[in-house]
């Protein structure tokens, strides 16, 4: 049997302030750090012993992974970082308050920007210093031109799935148990692929911060089952909180 654990980073300071974050490199809040510690404890209790880990280029995901692995005494394992696991890029919306955007543009428009499958938020201008091309961590990446000043969920899926197929999948086979610490939309891209979800179903999926999401596969990597390490009542409450971020 093979096991994959996905974990959305703990609450960030901009999650707490209900801001669009995207590729902005914000830190964890105190609550987010505690969520990461709790996640590590839960995974240790369930007997997980990872041999390999993945995360994005963004500190909220990196720190969540480090804190959780520290709790499990697994800080020694190899960790591979990739920009392909970054959050969906929210373009000009990054840094703006979601509820303020609802007041200005209405719930329907904000929902489209947040959750549309193939509609992108307003794009950053190439002259905007927030554009990835000005960030040292993305320089030297041959196909960074394909990374945008904005992204839809479809764009996010298109950059992640080849990385899964060409890299992550082989590590899962090699090590039996691996963990990916990433972001709401980059993880939804992986979930859509693994569960063969249709375009409408995946936009309805709300992944809460700091709750390990486990996938179990048979010896030929057919998905057997998937489940969160949380009770149903807690999980529903946290998912509802994510869903309500862009409402009045």
Provide the fold topology.
Layout: E1 2-8, H1 13-16, H2 30-45, E2 52-55, H3 59-71, E3 79-81, H4 98-105, H5 107-115, H6 153-175, E4 177-182, H7 184-195, H8 199-203, E5 213-217, E6 223-228, H9 232-243
Parallel strand pairs: 1-4, 2-3, 2-4
Antiparallel strand pairs: 1-5, 5-6
Q: Largest sheet at a glance?
A: 6 strands, mixed
**Contiguous helical run count:** 9
- In percent, how much strand structure appears in the residues? 5-15%
How are helices and strands ordered from N to C?
Answer: EHHEHEHHHEHHEEH
Topology, number of strands = 6
Which regions are unreliable across 5 or more consecutive residues at pLDDT < 50?
none
Q: Cα distance, first to last residue? A: 45 Å
Average pLDDT, rounded to a whole number, is 93
* Radius of gyration, in angstroms, nearest whole number: 17 Å
Give the class from helix and strand content and strand pairing: alpha/beta
The percentage helix is 40-55%
Principal-axis shape: globular
Describe the protein's architecture and organization.
The protein is an alpha/beta fold. 41% of the residues lie in helices and 12% in strands. The chain contains nine helices and six strands. It has helices spanning 13-16, 30-45, 59-71, 98-105, 107-115, 153-175, 184-195, 199-203, 232-243; strands spanning 2-8, 52-55, 79-81, 177-182, 213-217, 223-228. Strands 3-2-4-1-5-6 form a six-stranded mixed beta sheet. Helix 2 crosses helix 3 (59-71) and helix 4 (98-105) packs across helix 5 (107-115). The longest helix has 23 residues, at 153-175. The chain starts with a strand and ends in a 5-residue tail after the last helix. The model has no long low-confidence stretch (mean pLDDT 93).
């Amino acid at each position: 049997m093979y096991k994959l654990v996905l974990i959305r980073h703990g609450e960030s300071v901009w999650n707490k302030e209900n801001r669009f974050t995207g590729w902005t490199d914000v830190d964890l809040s105190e609550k987010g750090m505690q969520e990461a510690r709790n996640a590590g404890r839960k995974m240790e209790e369930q007997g997980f012993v990872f041999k390999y880990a993945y995360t994005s280029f963004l500190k909220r995901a990196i720190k969540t992974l480090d804190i959780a692995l520290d709790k499990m005494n697994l800080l020694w394992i190899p960790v591979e970082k990739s920009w392909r696991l970054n959050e969906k890029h929210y373009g000009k919306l990054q840094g703006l308050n979601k509820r303020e955007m609802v007041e200005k543009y209405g719930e329907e428009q904000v929902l489209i920007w947040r959750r549309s499958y193939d509609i992108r938020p307003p794009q950053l201008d190439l002259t905007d210093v927030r554009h990835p091309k000005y960030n040292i961590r993305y320089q030297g990446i041959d196909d960074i031109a394909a990374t945008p000043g904005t992204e839809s969920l479809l764009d996010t899926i298109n950059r992640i799935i080849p990385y899964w197929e060409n890299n992550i999948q082989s590590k899962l086979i090699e090590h039996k148990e691996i963990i990916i610490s990433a972001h709401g939309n980059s993880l939804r891209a992986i979930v859509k692929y693994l569960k063969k979800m249709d375009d409408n179903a995946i936009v309805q999926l709300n992944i809460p911060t700091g709750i390990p999401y486990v996938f179990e596969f048979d010896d030929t990597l057919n998905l057997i089952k998937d489940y969160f390490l949380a009770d149903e009542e807690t999980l529903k409450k946290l998912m509802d909180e994510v869903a309500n971020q862009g409402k009045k």
